[in-house]
Amino acid sequence: MNQAYSFDLLDSGVLLIEETGRIQYANLSAQELLGLSARQLDQAALTDLLDCDTELRQRLLEAFAGHYGVLRQTLVLRPAAASRAIDATVVPLEGQPWAALVELRRAPQPEYFGRTQALNKELDAQRESLRNLAHEIKNPLGGIRGAAQLLEAELYDDRLYEYTGVIMDEVDRLRALIDLLVGPQSQSLQLSPLNIHEVCERVYTLVQAEFAHQIKVTRDYDASVPELQGDMARLVQALLNIARNGAQALVEAQDVQQPTLTLRTRVGRHLVLGDRSVRMGVVVSVIDNGPGVSDSLRDRIFLPLLTGRAQGTGLGLSMAQELVHQHGGALEYDSRPGCTEFRLILPLEA
Q1: Which residue of 28, 127, 135, 207 has the lowest C-beta tally within 10 Å?
Q2: How high is the mean pLDDT of the chain?
Q3: How far apart are CA 180 and CA 238, in angstroms?
Q4: Statement: residue 112 has pLDDT above 50
């Protein structure tokens, strides 16, 4: 047991667990994080310290037995009145007196949550105004294109076709932009059971093909994530918008060493999605090591038609957020220089 005491030098909490789920050792950081002494934690069942249902209890016991390999899980500590989230990593051990090592870290409070509560009404109002404006613009654009076609038929100088071509091309571009604004609302969701990793793999393939020679694209999947009900096409579009946004930021950055984009999946517990909470959800993260979101965009990044890129439309993240909201989920982010993480969160319950 003496070899365990070296864990007291670590900042993160460490628990050594037997196969039944009882704690055999807790380092000083774990005692502080859990708010209990070494004596109180000795032989205590870890699941008794958590806001833990039967399903999560069984999942943790299976993780201690090595059924998932390394398992990363967000947990909520008791008592419920003062509950707080922690990020736990369960590492099964072989040839040791303990079945598993559990590393504990205090879960960061996502800055996006506070921003979202304040901006939700503004976003909804802006999107509704944009849709109304889009419908008003679309009809005149059809008239302009038709007039340009009639004008082209009357021209006798081939050199003038270039000008009518420009008119029609620009009209088509504007109509496509308008379709992006109103498109997500035009049809109902086509829900079916799906594995979120099928969505991730589709996006990985597309981003890898587009940016393979410019950035490194990696995957970090939790194989234990269950199926969910979702619209495959819309979830692919939402995740692709987020991933392409991160990839483009890396490509445009000048001083990033080994630019890397990572797709990561985890199971989240006791999540707050808008104005409701859910017991369990899927968290899909897109992480890049770019320069981060600029201060000028930080509080307005999901507003439509707002972009920090010269060639951007400002619709990618706004559309992704709307597509996620249609699934009852949330899109949030944390950003600092060297690490930006967008999290697409989808509930696993109705």
Answers
A1: 135
A2: 81
A3: 12
A4: no
